[in-house]
Structure prediction request, 628 residues.
Amino acid sequence: MATVKRCSTAYKAVFYAFMVVSVIITLFPFVWMLSTSFKSPGEIFTRQPTILPQVWTLAGYKNLFAAVNMWLHLCNSVIYAVSLTALSVLFNAMAAYAFAKLRFPGREKLFALLLVTMMVPGQVTMLPVFLILKSMGLLNSYAGLVLPGSAAVFAIFMIRQFMMDIPEEILEAARIDGFSEFAIFWRIMLPLCRPIIATLTVFSFIGAWNDFLWPLIIMLREDKYTLPVALASINGQYNTDWGLLMAGAVVVVAPAVLVFLLAQKHYIKGIAAGAVKG
Amino acid sequence: MAEVELSNISKIFEGAVRPVLSDISFTVKDTEFVSLLGPSGCGKTTLLRIIAGLEEQTSGNVAIGARDMNRVAPRDRDMAFVFQNYALYPHFSVRDNISLGLRLRKIAKTEIEARVTATAGMLGLDALLERKPRSLSGGQRQRVALARALVRNPKVFLLDEPLSNLDAKLRDKTRGELRMLFKKVKGTVIYVTHDQIEAMTMSDKIVILQDGRIQQIGTPSEIYESPANIFVATFIGTPQMNILTKKEMRAIGCFLTGTEPGREDLACGIRPEDVEASAAPRQNWIEGAVDLCEPAGALTTLTISVSGTTLRCSTTLKWPTDQTSVWFTFQREHIHFFSSAEGARISSGT
Prediction:
């Protein structure tokens, strides 16, 4: 008994040590970013760097807001991330509902075809999509920025798997009660899929918020830049103002962290969905 | 309420070789309680789903109150369906679960409130109206599912094994309550079950299905007393009816005379409760050995073997556990005659 207890304690000690090291490795870049954003340029390049600034300064943030129109780019990023998230959740959930719960000829084959498209890298389709949007006159527009990403096969797949676990009888009861098919989707299925919807909302929001390449390609005018693109544009060819850059990085990262924290409760449920019999 | 008429309903699922339902026709009269009874996989739930419009039949007609329902959507059939797993909306309160059907039909708020209160009162759900289904017990959930059906006052109630998820004691109690409830609301009910006790105790009429075909339609007593074939005879009654071939009857020393016994493909059915048993020798009774004695309170079931033939007997006698010999007999009028080749009933012993 004593041996078992000792083994268990030793195991726990190793486990916790491993976890602590992992957390430090994960958090260090964020802490460094935050700390650097409050340091003066001299302190950033000192030979003996400290984790916390010896002299706290908001110079990086002031320079950032002076160098670029941060509110405008922040606004662009919010429009992009929020509208892409809202549209993709709606469209992906609707498609997933059709694939999970509606019966129509060729459903399985169509879904398999959809899955196959996951094998094609996004970069391959960027040029054709760009040309299509150009021919539609949607370059430099929020529609052009948002619409191509508003349906994602991976999200459809995830929601479909979650929906398949919802008993068919609940939908049948709703049909007998008098719900229309859209009402079943909107009032029954979506609320029941809250965990997976929260997960995909986080994925989608963070993905769009951090997205660099697509906004860079589509938004050709500077006033349409999203935050990551604007941030990259202030990076000089020969010199980099690290304080300003880190302040910009903090501004970019903060909303994403906030969204994650807000959706965390449902997010964890969504990640674990299907792991155990409900 | 209304009459339900099924005519020549058949169903073959896509890719299946055999039909799930073949040529099903019967009528459920207004305010009648009809049970669809049969073993698992016999097609009874499929039939109920076809009546509800949740499944489309391959051929045949469903009519409710003389109106053809074949092209009518489930919500427009004016039926209520109680599912085996209740299918409550987990994110809505009990009140919402009960009232949603009425709200979707644009019924006035005051009337909805009155009907929900009355139905909840009838089923003892008053105190649970604001709770979510996950915080209810199995029995309470089952009552919510019933309330959701009752509150709409539909033409027909369809119930798919609603008691199967309850424990034995609660099932026994709910069975009686359910029957009284539907008598009170004068409901036309089609009730699916594989439990013969439920079907026998609750129904005005029973439809027995096997392999997608109707085996017999009748009142519980008709089915028990005059089973149409060997399947029905052995399916209804616990312990099941003894079926002895002509050769086995001779082997136990039972020589029958008359028209039916003259047939070579004869099978004789004797219910265990029609076999009289004695622990003491009786004149002209058949002597057998007790292979198994199963006391179950008021009744004891004996498994008796005579010259390689086995039959079971239910007796009210307090059977001595060390008694290995038994003397038994049965009356000719209690014997049911069947054709062993076709399984069909020939006649009773009288």
The two ends of chain A are 35 Å apart (CA to CA). The mean pLDDT of chain A is 88.
